[in-house]
Design goal:
It catalyses: GTP + H2O = GDP + phosphate + H(+). By secondary structure, the chain is an alpha/beta fold. The chain has helices at residues 15-24, 59-62, 65-74, 89-111, 139-148, 162-183, 212-221, 227-242; strands at 3-8, 37-45, 48-56, 77-83, 121-126, 152-155, 198-201, 206-207. Strands 1, 2, 3, 4, 5, 6, 7 and 8 form an eight-stranded mixed β-sheet that branches. The protein is globular, with a radius of gyration of 17 Å. The N and C termini lie far apart (47 Å).
Length: 243
């Protein structure tokens, strides 16, 4: 049973750039928008090969509440991408998280299962390399959202941070894999409008040869992201730099 991940976010925020960076290790700046693409991939986690399906959404969002809700119902875990240079990201992120939470809770009720304590979702601010163009200053609001919904929050750049992007996707796929055994009945069997999807397959597994310090970084980054936790990590990094 594959792990299913859905990626959403406003047009032009870099959703596809982040995904392609993870899958192919390449950065490509411009992509066609307005279509949904389903990627099939194989990831290797702790010596196990995991089949992964990743839905890069565009038309789901354009179809509005019902379209995005249907896409979220299909997935095991969720990734919302926003542009750090824009000001209006937090309200959209909150709507996405609220919808994801509602979809999961309703599915749990229908299946007679307990509601999940923590939402299997990640907020990712992209385009930190363009901060000189103006920064939306959403970080504090996003940290509050990540605390409220018990999800994780990162800022990165598809152009410059391939290692962090690997860690983000690896952690989210691992979390989705763990959730399947606990809540596989919470997801729908098929995607809406599947015949209209473009589908791409990446046959070569992403072999992540992480060093011990990389694994420690993944573990520390994958803690629930609160404002106080972020400050603590920053202080630790400063102490290490001084040492």
């Amino acid at each position: 049973m594959p792990v299913r991940l859905v990626i959403a976010g406003p047009d032009g925020c870099g959703k596809t750039a982040l995904l392609v960076r993870y899958l192919s290790k390449r950065f490509i700046e411009t992509y066609q928008s307005g279509i949904d693409i389903l990627y099939r991939h194989r990831a290797v986690l702790q010596d196990s090969t995991i089949d992964v399906e990743i839905l890069d959404t565009s038309s789901c969002e354009r179809r509005g509440f019902n379209g995005l809700s249907a896409c979220l119902s299909w997935a095991d875990s969720f990734l919302f991408v926003y542009d750090v240079t824009l000001l209006d990201s937090a309200p959209r992120a909150r709507l996405f998280l609220e919808l994801a939470r509602t979809v999961r809770d309703n599915a749990a009720i229908s299946a007679g299962s307990a509601k999940e304590r923590r939402l299997p979702a990640v907020l990712v601010g992209n385009k930190t390399d363009l901060a000189y163009c103006g920064h939306g200053n959403n970080k504090a609001e996003m940290e509050i959202l990540s605390s409220q919904f018990r999800c994780r929050h990162f800022v990165t750049s598809a152009a410059e941070d391939p290692k962090i992007i690997d860690l983000i996707f690896t952690g989210l796929i691992a979390e989705g894999h763990l959730s399947i055994g606990q809540s596989h009945s919470l997801r729908k069997a098929s995607l809406p409008g599947r015949g209209q999807l473009q589908q791409q397959r990446h046959s070569r597994p992403s072999m992540l040869a992480l060093r011990e310090e990389d694994l420690m970084s993944l573990e520390s980054r994958w803690l629930p992201a609160t404002t106080s936790g972020a400050k603590k990590r920053e202080q630790q990094q400063e102490q290490q730099a001084d040492g």
